[in-house]
Each structure stands twice: as structure tokens, then as C-alpha cells.
Design brief:
Rossmann fold; six-stranded mixed β-sheet; alpha/beta; 2 domains
């Protein structure tokens, strides 16, 4: 795949070549131009300048574009498999072009022939709900490969695979790269990407600001580019005032964990078997909270929850900024909405920080950064005793991750006890006071803050 001086939408003069066998790590520092770049990978478009060629054929130019989709496949959090069909049926019945295999016996045999060399112990009779997330990723890639797709986009797999699963997926990707397939591997951390990628590219404001072979990447050069993130991390190292006696106890999977004011415990699920991320209901966790020996309802006013992808799942876009901000906090104050004094007091306080944004009639015109601030401003307004956060950094660019770190740090200093449930150790080391490593649904290891520097220096010591 060749990008030659491509200008399209928010992309500015993009030029690079992706060869067979390449695994190109892509980090977008601000997400500007990222969606446009992914769109040009997947679909032919009419460009503002330059051209895009796939395997020698120009698919997008200034004057015209191909009428067919590019032979590129996208792997992301959302599955492409149909839940009501078996894996064999998913593999062959949904093929867009060419002959379809209708005999189920033939489909099963061909399915097993394709997956067997990759050590997948599947018969084809299974349904998508019967397999692991890692197996789902491999099946989607092999399905595309079987029907002629040679280039793939992996959209931040560390946000939906545990470290053990990610290690196995990376090995799988390296093997396919040796079979002359190519990959665009999106992520948020160069340390993670350099473990698997052959090249590294950084995108900012729609421009390529760094492009280098993986074996020539120097840590100092990346740190200089991301110096703002490094400076934010340094500010987080100011000691927190953590109480000696726990205010709450958390019980899960047969273990009891004390929760202190200002504490930040992190659960890392190595192989994604804790069911923390299954389904859309984050309350079905197998987690119990206790205060003074009594179990708390997770909807209790002392407990707040920030779900995965919170800016899309926890806000009411038809309501005003003020209503979103005060919805749960108002439950603690009788007659909050009927007393103008209370409302005016909140508006006055937040107008100093937010300006006219506090007066927004709905959320549709807000940027992702403003919506992210609203998610955490809601918690600050509510001031719970315990805050549960699911995958707080998933899908965010560098500046959004900096904002999340700053918000979590502020809440810790206000005495909120925080529990983060994540799949990746990246970023959480900057804010955590203790890590709890789960594997196979059981607690594997507990890591104290004093051990974090060694993990940063040598990521290979992290258990897989």
C-alpha cells in the first residue's frame, strides 16, 4: 500500500509505503486525522491531492476512485461475527463475492483445514459466544485472509485483550507477517508497539511527525515528542494523604481488599477471564463493597461508577450540561431543582472554570475533550466515597489520557478511594498505589508501588 502526498479531509500531505510483511505501529497523539486515515485505508475516496495505491493499483486519486472496497480488513472491539451463526457459517455463508459453500459438512471441513495450522482447537460448530475474545480476533483475521485480504488494521487491541491474550495475538500477527501479510497496528504506547511492530509512525494534527524502523527507534526521541505527557506524569508523584484505617472493604473472587481514602487500587485482568467486561451492565461484577460490616448497593450515593467509553454511555445528550452535571449530586440535596439559590450557586462556581459551557442546552456540539471533562466533573460534583472506573484510558489520545490522569489525581487528593479495572498496565502505573494481577479468574499476584519503577524499566518482568 502506497500513500503519495495524500491530502484528504484533516490529513495533510501523508506519504509512506506499507510493504508485505510490515507491521506498522501507529500512534495518534491528538486523534486529528486518524479517522480520515482509517477511512482511506478501508475505502476508496476522491482525494484533495496525491494518490493511494494498493498492490500496484491506484484506488484513490484526485479525479476518481475505485468502485470496490479496498482489500483491507479492520479488527476492533466490536465483532463482525454474527451471533446466531456458527463459526463455520460465519466463515463461508457471509462471503460477499464468489461462490458460497452451502453444505455444512463441507463448511466444517474447510473451516478446520484453515484454522488447524494456527493451533485453534475449534470444530466450526461453536458460536461466537462460545469462544474467547482472543479466538474471535484470530478467526476474524483468518476469515479475511482465506478470501484474499492481505492487509489488516488492528484498532488498539490492548483496550479489549488482556496482557496474556495480547502477547499471544502479537505472536500470531508476527507469524502472519512472515506469510507476506501486512498490518497497521494502532496503539497508545510506543513500548507496547515496539514489542511487535517493524516500523513506528506518529501522527499529530493530521501530519506524520515521526517515522522510523523499529530497530532504530530511540527512547529519548519519543520522550521529546511526548514531553507534555511526561511532565503530567511527574506532577502525579506528589505524595497522597492516604488514611491508615480503611473506610471500606471490597470483596471479589474470595479475596478482601481494604479501601483507604485517597487510595487507588488497580485490577489487571491478564487473560480477560474475570467477566469484568462482559455485557453492557457493569454492575454484574461479582464485586461487593462493605462499610462498617454492612454491604453497600453499588447504586448507593457513596459509590460512583465510570463505565468503559463513558463519554458515549454515561451522558444524556438531550439534557443540558448543567442537568448532566448535577443529576446524581442533586439527589443528596433536598429540593435542589426547586431552590434557585442552589442552582445559581453551582452555575457561578463552574462558570469560573468552564465559562459559557455550563449553559449549553445539550451535549451534541461538545468536543470529546469537553465531554470527558464533564464525566469527571460529575463525579467531582457528586463526591462519592468510592469510585469504580472501567478502562479509563481505552481509545483515548495522549492529551485525553493526560486529562484522565489529572482528574483521577484530583479526586484522590479530595479523599476519594478509587478502584480501576483495566486490561493493560500502561498509564495506570502513573496513578496507582497498588496493582492486583488476576489470571484464570484468580488473584495471581499483588504488586506494591515500590515495585513500579522496575516494571517501567523492564516490561518483560510483568507476569503473562
Amino acid at each position: 500500500m502506497v500513500f503519495n502526498h495524500v491530502r484528504y479531509n484533516t490529513l495533510k500531505d501523508i506519504s509512506f509505503t506499507l510493504y508485505s510483511g510490515d507491521i506498522l505501529g501507529l500512534i495518534s497523539l491528538d486523534h486529528v486525522g486518524l479517522s480520515a486515515l482509517l477511512h482511506t485505508f478501508l475505502y476508496p475516496v476522491t482525494l484533495d491531492s496525491g494518490f493511494i495505491a494498493v498492490r500496484g493499483d491506484k484506488v484513490s486519486t484526485v479525479l476518481e476512485h475505485s468502485k470496490q472496497e479496498n482489500k483491507v480488513s479492520l479488527l476492533e472491539f466490536k465483532t463482525k461475527l454474527v451471533s446466531s451463526l456458527s463459526l463455520a457459517e460465519n466463515f463461508f455463508s457471509l462471503k460477499k463475492n464468489g461462490p458460497k459453500i452451502l453444505s455444512f459438512k463441507t463448511m466444517r471441513r474447510e473451516f478446520q483445514r484453515i484454522v488447524e495450522p494456527y493451533n485453534l482447537a475449534l470444530t466450526g460448530d461453536e458460536y461466537p459466544s462460545d469462544i474467547t475474545n482472543l479466538e474471535r480476533c484470530k478467526i476474524e483475521i483468518l476469515k479475511a485472509k482465506a478470501f484474499g485480504i492481505r492487509s489488516f488494521i488492528l484498532n488498539d487491541p490492548s483496550s479489549f485483550l488482556g496482557p496474556s491474550e495480547l502477547y499471544e495475538l502479537n505472536s500470531f500477527v508476527k507469524r502472519l507477517a512472515k506469510e507476506d501479510m501486512s498490518f497497521i497496528y494502532l496503539g497508545g504506547h510506543h513500548e507496547e508497539l515496539l514489542e511487535v511492530c517493524t516500523k513506528l509512525m506518529l501522527l499529530k494534527e493530521g501530519l506524520i511527525i515521526y517515522f522510523e524502523n523499529a530497530d532504530k527507534v530511540q527512547k529519548g526521541s519519543i520522550d521529546n515528542i511526548a514531553y507534555e505527557f511526561t511532565e503530567t506524569e511527574k506532577k502525579l508523584h506528589i505524595p497522597y494523604n492516604i488514611t491508615q484505617e480503611p473506610d471500606f472493604w471490597l470483596e471479589t473472587k474470595g479475596i478482601n481488599i481494604p479501601l483507604h481514602k485517597g487510595d487507588c487500587n488497580v485490577f489487571i485482568d491478564l487473560d480477560n477471564k474475570m467477566d469484568f467486561f462482559s455485557g453492557d451492565n457493569n454492575l454484574q461484577l461479582g464485586i461487593k463493597l462493605f462499610s462498617n460490616g454492612e454491604e453497600l448497593d453499588l447504586l448507593n450515593s457513596k459509590v460512583a461508577i465510570i463505565p468503559r467509553n463513558a463519554i458515549r454511555t454515561s451522558l444524556y445528550y438531550d439534557l443540558s450540561y448543567f442537568d448532566n452535571l448535577t443529576l446524581r449530586a442533586s439527589c443528596k440535596i433536598p429540593f435542589f431543582y426547586s431552590k434557585r439559590y442552589f442552582r445559581n450557586s453551582v452555575v457561578k462556581e463552574y462558570k469560573q472554570k468552564l465559562g459559557e459551557l455550563i449553559l449549553a442546552k445539550d451535549l451534541y456540539s461538545l468536543t470529546d475533550e469537553e465531554l470527558l471533562d464533564l464525566v469527571y466533573n460529575k463525579v467531582g460534583m457528586e463526591m462519592p466515597k468510592v469510585l469504580l472506573i472501567f478502562q479509563p484510558f481505552a481509545g483515548f489520545d495522549m492529551y485525553q489520557r493526560m486529562s484522565v490522569l489529572d482528574h483521577i489525581s484530583t479526586l484522590r487528593r479530595k479523599g476519594v478511594s478509587i478502584l480501576i479495572i483495566a486490561l493493560s498496565v500502561s498509564d495506570v502505573l502513573s496513578i496507582a498505589s497498588k496493582l492486583f494481577i488476576f489470571k484464570g479468574g484468580k488473584l495471581e499476584r499483588q504488586i506494591e508501588e515500590s515495585e513500579f519503577p522496575e516494571i517501567r524499566r523492564n516490561r518483560k518482568i510483568f507476569p503473562l
